Amino acid sequence: MDLISISALIAAVAFVILVVFISRTLFRLERVFRGVESTIAETQKDLHNVCVEAVQLVHTSNHLANEAKIFVNNSNELTKDMRERAKSLDVLAKSVEEVGVTISEMNEKVRDTANNVSNTVKVSTEKMSQLANWGNTAMDLWEKYKTKREGKKRNGKSNINDSTV
User: Fold this and answer.
1) What is the C-alpha to C-alpha distance for residues 148 and 151, in angstroms, rounded to an integer?
2) Where are the transmembrane segments (predicted)?
3) CB atoms < 10 A from the CB of 64, how many?
C-alpha cells in the first residue's frame, strides 16, 4: 500500500467517523427540534387558550363596566332624588316649626284670655256679691219700712208721708 492509498483509507475512515458523528448529532438535533416543535405546539395551544380567556375576560370586564356605569348612574339619580326629598323635608320641618310657634303663641294668648276672663269673673263676682248685698240691704230696709207702716196702721196712725222709718 502506498502512501496515497493509506491516506485515502485514513481519509475514508475519518469521513465515515465524521459521518457517524454528524448523523448522531443530526439525530439528536432532530429530537431536539421535535421537542421544540411539540413545545411550540403546546405553547400555541396554551397561547390560544389564554387569548380565548383574555377575550372572555375583556367581554366580562366590559359587561361589568357597563353594569358599573348603570349602577353609578342609578346611584347619582338616587342621590339627587334624596337631596330633593331632603329639601322638601326641610320645607316641611320649617312649616312644622312655624306651626309649633303659632300654636305656642296661640296657647299664650289663650292663657292670657283665660286669665283676663278669670279676673273679669272675679271682679264681676265681687260686684255681683256687692250688688246682692245691696239688694239684701234694700230688701231688709223695705221689709222694715213695710213692717213699721203696718204697725202704724194698726195703731191708728196712717201717715203715708211719714219719713221716720
Assistant:
1) 5
2) 6-27
3) 11
Task: Report whether 120 contacts 126 (CB < 8 A).
Answer: no
Residues 6+ apart with CB under 8 A from 149: 160, 162
pTM listed for this prediction: 0.41
> What is the chain written as a DSSP string?
--HHHHHHHHHHHHHHHHHHHHHHHHHHHHHHHHHHHHHHHHHHHHHHHHHHHHHHHHHHHHHHHHHHHHHHHHHHHHHHHHHHHHHHHHHHHHHHHHHHHHHHHHHHHHHHHHHHHHHHHHHHHHHHHHHHHHHHHHHHHHHHHHHHHHHHHHHT---TT----
| C-alpha cell, 76 | 347619582
Q: What are the φ/ψ torsions at residue 121 (nearest 5 degrees)?
A: -65, -40
Q: What is the CA radius of gyration of the chain?
A: 66
**What CA–CA distance (Å, rounded) separates 119 from 139?**
29
Phi/psi for 162 (5° steps) reads -70, 125
